[in-house]
Amino acid sequence: MKLFKFPYLLQKEVFDNMEYQDLFLLSFISNKMKKTIKSCQANRFKSISFIRYCGMNKRTFVDIVAKNHLKEDFVEIKERDNTKMDYFQLKLFGKIIDFRKSRRDHIFEAAFNPDESESVIKSIHNYMLQFFGDSLEYIWSTSDWVNTVPQLQNLSPSISMWHVNPDLIDLENFFSTNPPFKMIEFQPTRPINFNPGSKFYQAETVVTLQHNNYFPSVLRHFQGKQAFVHCTYHNTEDFIEFVNKWKSGEAFRKLEVLNFKALGDDDIDHETVLNGIGAKHIDARKTPPTHTLPKM
Amino acid sequence: MSSTEQGTSSAAPAEPTTAPESAAAPEVPESFYYVHGKDKVVHKVSAGALQHSALIHGMISNLGYTEEQAKANPFPFENIDGDILQMVVDWCNQHKGKPTPPEDTNLPKQKEKLFDLVLAVNYLEIKELLTYCCKQVAMMVKGKSPEEIREIWMIPTDAEDEAAEKEAKKRAGKEAAGETAAAAGDAK
Prior knowledge:
The complex is a heterodimer of chains A (296) and B (188).
Chain A: H1 8-16, H2 20-26, H3 31-40, H4 42-46, E1 48-55, E2 59-66, E3 71-79, E4 88-92, E5 95-101, E6 108-112, H5 117-132, E7 137-142, E8 155-164, H6 171-176, E9 183-188, E10 205-210, H7 215-218, E11 226-231, H8 236-248, E12 257-262, H9 270-277
Parallel strand pairs in A: 1-7, 3-6, 7-8, 8-9, 9-10, 10-11, 11-12
Antiparallel strand pairs in A: 1-2, 2-3, 4-5, 5-6
Helix pairs in contact in A: 8-9
Chain B: E1 3-4, E2 32-36, E3 42-46, H1 47-50, H2 54-60, H3 67-72, E4 75-76, H4 82-94, H5 111-124, H6 127-139, H7 146-153, H8 158-187
């Protein structure tokens, strides 16, 4: 069967029925094939919302999330498994990488030798940039706060740090050795103060879940756009102070969204909060008023 | 020329024992058309089954053939092998007036047959069957390495593509030179 004997629309129909991982493999067959895939799958590639790397340094799963929120497994990048040698080799940006299809779950795997993970991830990432396009969002999603995030073109890192004990890890150093995170999910076991210039505060979004009233320290010098605070216990005065600093322009000048949720029985005293922050009722039928931050 | 009687049902409906309360509209007798492929074997197919093919449906919609006229004028599809047309006719009969299922497992597994079927179905514009066939073609390479895919779909290497391109350019150059020489000869 000569696929290239099919009319273009038939080739497109065939490619439409293939998973991204198979299209990726197909692109290595020839330059003409790669060009054909990129041309007839351009609209499909446009429907990708982001490509996400999930995991730790030793094992990274890459999946592709479409704008309709459907997720497709793409490749697992893991340390070489020497018990099975059914790998085939592909050359990506000058680097030869071993790939195989897992017989167990049909996931496409790329293998690296110890200490080679970063260069393998980099080569795969560069190929993906070229294949899917560099206008897509590439997210590095991890819960590893020991190893640094690879610094790759167009890659936005995001980290989940649940139950992190600041006494056991030098968080200041961790954030200083990484690029600023797009999102940090943060649950410290005790209040923590970062340096005012810490890269922690440069995160675009911080989500913090806390059982105690640690949020004033966590967000003290926050320079990002969105903050989500979920507290089991909170102090109303701290919350009012935070909002008033934001409104006055004294701090949090880039903040656009603040979501504060009281969990458990410690409900918010609405009247005290609304009076304290000077909230006004907005008629939903009218254009909402704008708030301009005073120049500092 | 031989013929097969596909899609005909000779079972006569049982006579009703009591008259229905309200007389149902008399059923319009189903019309049939005839098609043949490269092997000239004629297949009798109902208009209902042929509705799957946008091409044939467009051809027959305003014909108003009588049974005799239809029999005397089978649609020739000389570009489709007889066994492939048979598969298409069988599929159309099987799915006549029924919603098409999401999967079809009865498609040929041999790649050359599937290739011919895809081309035939594309020509006859049978959308659902084309979708199944293309899915099947895609499934042929699922989980395969690039070299295995190259073998299955007979994809040339870059070097072969380059050589073919050079050859095509050379041929085009020769043809252009031939045309120029012929034009010069005509002018004389």
